[in-house]
Amino acid sequence: MQELSGQVAIVTGASRGIGEAAAKTLGALGVKVVLAARRVELCQAIAKDIEASGGQAIAVACDVSDFSAVTDLAVQTRERFGPPGILINNAGVIEPIGGILDSHPDEWAANVSINLLGVYHCIRAVLPGLLEACGVVINISSGAAHTPLEGWSAYCSSKAGVAMLTQATALEYAGRGLRVFGFAPGTVDTDMQVKIKASGINPVSQMAREDHAAPEVPAQVIAYLCSSAASDLAGKELTIRDPILRQRAGLPD
Ligand code: NAP
């Protein structure tokens, strides 16, 4: 993974959870990390931690559902570190949770605007730099992209859209050296799982906290996917449950 040192990465949804862990893991590998989320003060504190450990990081306030904010994120990244070669599309929300009949159209649209449009916005804004660098895009997926779960119509639909966007992006740009991955991190002990548990809807909400992995576990796989060692997996939807991927990324069985 030494090859990652000096590269530039944008991590969206880096203010907590999987995004925070991915930013710290990449920062420890010498990647210059741009942490983006709406709550920039949380990103700033994490960026300081990365710098205190000898890494380089900045925080940028960004709502990924707003294309002008994402454009500004791309500009600030270039100005500070140069064009990004790594884009981790991690920002996401689970809500609204509940039956379709009980859902509000604005809340349903907000989910799609963050989870699906947000991924498109980030790819669209930084694609020129990514192509220059023969870079990497990792779209954080979910088992919910492929299996419907009660009460999660917006989340499942938006993640299914992201899975198709992963394939569409790979189809158009793999020939120019871009490596695009969908990566489902399994169930992870984050604020998102706290919200899921509180809802009491569907089997995921019945899982015990100990059943979820720590965010550092998928972060390790994310870092591995950024390396050229994972090139042969590009264009695919991957899951942390795959024993071969786990072994290749250095995780226990
Ligand atoms: P989390 O702890 O709730 O963190 C979500 C992150 O996304 C936060 O940093 C949040 O920051 C950011 N975010 C939300 N809306 C945003 C917006 N409009 N613009 C920019 N950033 C935004 O969730 P997590 O569990 O780490 O989830 C990370 C990713 O993994 C998501 O894509 C999720 O769907 C996926 N995933 C999680 C699990 C799991 O079990 N946890 C399982 C499968 C997939 P701000 O609120 O500060 O903006």
Provide keyphrases for this structure.
253 residues; alpha/beta; Rossmann fold; seven-stranded parallel sheet; 7 strands; binds NADP nicotinamide-adenine-dinucleotide phosphate
Task: Summarize the helices and strands and which ones pair or pack.
Layout: E1 8-12, H1 17-28, E2 32-37, H2 40-52, E3 56-61, H3 67-81, E4 86-89, H4 105-132, E5 136-140, H5 153-173, E6 179-184, H6 191-199, H7 216-226, E7 237-239, H8 243-248
Parallel strand pairs: 1-2, 1-4, 2-3, 4-5, 5-6, 6-7
Helix pairs in contact: 1-2, 1-7, 3-4, 4-5
Order of helices and strands: EHEHEHEHEHEHHEH
Task: State the major sheet.
Answer: 7 strands, parallel
* Radius of gyration from the alpha-carbon trace, in angstroms: 17 Å
Strand adjacency order, main sheet: 3-2-1-4-5-6-7
The number of distinct β-strands equals 7
Number of helices: 8
CATH topology: Rossmann fold
| CATH architectural grouping | 3-Layer(aba) Sandwich
